[in-house]
């Protein structure tokens, strides 16, 4: 299983940073939406 994960990461090395940035942006958006009602 670890070998498969390494293989996938090696194949997607070019886009892994974009995927991580997108996931971080989604998490920031989720936290912002959850805290929005407390500001209104």
Structural account:
By secondary structure, this protein is mainly α. The protein has one domain (2-39). 85% of the residues lie in helices and 0% in strands. It has two helices and no strands. It is elongated and about 50 Å long. The N and C termini lie far apart (48 Å).
Features:
2 helices, mainly alpha, 40 residues
Taken as a percent bin, the fraction of beta residues is under 5%
User: Largest sheet, if any?
Assistant: none
User: What is the overall silhouette?
Assistant: elongated
Rg over CA atoms: 16 Å
What is the fold's blueprint, element by element?
Blueprint: H1 2-11, H2 16-39
How would you concisely characterize the structure shown here?
This protein has 40 residues and is mostly helical.
């Amino acid at each position: 299983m670890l070998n498969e994960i390494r293989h996938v990461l090696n194949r997607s090395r070019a886009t892994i940073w974009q995927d991580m940035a997108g996931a971080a942006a989604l998490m920031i958006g989720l936290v912002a939406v959850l805290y929005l009602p407390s500001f209104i």
